Amino acid sequence: MCFRKTLKTFPESKLAQVEQLAHCYNHERREYFFDRNPHLFQFILDACRRGVIHLPKDICGIVFREEMEYWGLAERQVAPCCWEALYRGESELKTMQMLVHSLRKGKKTRSGVIDKSDIKYRVWQFLDEQKSSKMAMIWCVFISMVILGSTLMQALATLPAFQVTPSLAEQATLRKYSEWYNTTFGRTKPHPYIIFGDLCCHSILTMETLVAFVVCPNKQAFLTSSVRIIVFAGYISYWIDLIMEMNLEKMTTVHALRAYIVFKYLNVLMLGRLFYITRHLPAFKIMGLTFRSSKQELKILGFMLGILVCVFGFAMFISELLHQTNINNVFVGMYWALVTLTTVGYGRYVPYSVLGHIIAAACALCGVLVLALPIGVIASTFYTFYNYHKYAAKHLQLTN
Fold it and tell me: For the residues 274-278, what does the mean pLDDT come to?
C-alpha cells in the first residue's frame, strides 16, 4: 500500500503512469496485476518512497537491472552505496564466461570431431591428457622428469667439474672466433657423458613431439600454439648445434662459426619445455587469464613505473652531478630508479650527497606505496579467477 504521489516520484517510470496500463488492471478485484517477483518489487516501491534506488546485497545485480528496466527506472538513480551490488553481477558473469571459454578452448584443442575408438585418438589422449588413464599419468610424470633432467644437464654443463678441454683441432677453430671478436669463448666444452645424457633426453622429447603432431586431431591448433612453436624451434636449434659441434674442426669460415654460436644460444628456447609441466595445472592457466583480464591495471602499472623512473632518474643524476659517483648519466640514474622502485636494490649505484639520500628515500617510499596499488588489484583478480575456476569446470562438465 502507498499513496499515488509516491508512485509519481520517477515521472518516466511505469508506476508513475499506472493509470495508462489498462491491460494490467483487474476490474473485478480492482487491482493491478504484474507478473513480477514480489520480493524485488518491494525494493522498487521503496525507491519511490526514498527517491533513490537501494538494492539488496544478496540479489544478483543483473536480475535487479532487468527489474529496473521493466519498471522504467534508470541506473543513474541507484544510490552510490549500491553501485557495487548493481554491477558486481556483470563482472562475475564476465569472469565465468572467460573461464568457461578457456576450458572449452583447451578441450577443443585437445580433442576434435573424431571417432574415440580410433587408435590415433587413444594415442593422443595418452600423450596429451594425463587424466585419461593411469598409464597416461605415468607417462606425463616420466616426460616431466626427462624435461627436468635435460634442463639439469644443461645447467651442469656450465660447471668446470663437468667440462673438458676441446681437441687441438677444435681449439684451432675456436681460436679464430676468439681472435675475430676478442672473446674467450670455446676454451672448454661439456663432458661427453653430459652430451650423451642430453642427447638421450632430447631424442625422447623430440620423438614424443613428432608422434603427438601425427596423432593430433587438430593440427592447426597444434601448429599455432606459441609454446609448441618455441619448443620446436629449440629442438631444431639443438640438433643443428649438435651436428655442428661434432664437426667443429671442419668449420673454418666466419659465417659457419657465427651460425654455430647462434644455434648454441638458441638452445635457451628449449626452456619453454618447462611449461609442459604446468599445462595441466589450473593455477598457471588462471594466471594467464588474470594477465589478460588485467590489461588496464598492467597499463597503469607500466605508466606509473615509467613516470617515476624518469623523474627519480633525472633527479638522482642532477643531485650527484657535482660528486664523483658512478651515476654519471641519466640512463644510469634511471636504472638505479628502476631497481629501487621495484625494491630490488642491487647496491652497485648508490648516492653520496645529502640530497641524493633524500631522493633515494622518496623513491623507495613511492615504490612501496604507488606500485603496490595496481599489483594488489591484479592479485585480487587472480584470487577471483582461482576461486571461480572450480564452478566453471563443474558447469562445463554438466553442460557437455
Answer: 71
Measure the CA–CA gap between 384 and 287, rounded to whole angstroms. Answer: 11
Alpha-carbon span 24 to 315, nearest angstrom: 72
| Predicted confidence (pLDDT) per residue in 121-130, tens digit | 888 878 877 7
* Residue tagged 587424466 (cell numbers): 131
157 close to 194: Cβ distance less than 8 angstroms: yes
Q: What grid cell was written down for 9? A: 516520484
- Phi, then psi, of 186 in degrees rounded to 5: 90, 15
Cβ-based neighbour number of residue 10 at 10 Å = 19
Nearest in space to 141 (alpha carbons), one of 280, 234, 235: 280
Query: In the structure grid, which three cell numbers stand for residue 157, read together?
Result: 654443463
Assigned C-alpha cell, 279: 599445462
- Report whether 157 contacts 163 (CB < 8 A): yes
Task: Output b/e per residue, 246-260; b: 16+ Cβ within 10 A.
Answer: eebeebeeeebbeeb
CA nearest to 261, candidates 240, 286, 235: 240
Q: What 3-state DSSP class applies to 164?
A: strand
71-113 confidence digits (pLDDT tens): 778 777 787 777 677 776 666 667 777 777 766 665 554 444 4
C-alpha cell read off for 297: 591495471
Question: Which residues on adjacent β-strands are paired with residue 163?
Answer: 190
* pLDDT for position 112: 47
Check pLDDT > 70 for residue 185.
no
> Using CA of residue 81, residue 85, residue 87, residue 92, what is the dihedral sign?
positive
Instruction: State the angle between helix axes of 354-369 and 372-399 in degrees (0 to 180), rounded to the nearest 10.
Output: 20
175-193 as b/e: b if 16+ CB within 10 A: eebeeeeeeeebeebbbee
Alpha-helical regions (H) of the chain? 4-7, 38-50, 61-71, 83-110, 119-128, 134-156, 168-181, 192-215, 219-223, 226-246, 254-265, 274-278, 282-293, 295-319, 330-341, 354-369, 372-399
Cα 377 to Cα 121, 342, 381, 383, 385: the distances in Å are 42, 17, 6, 10, 13
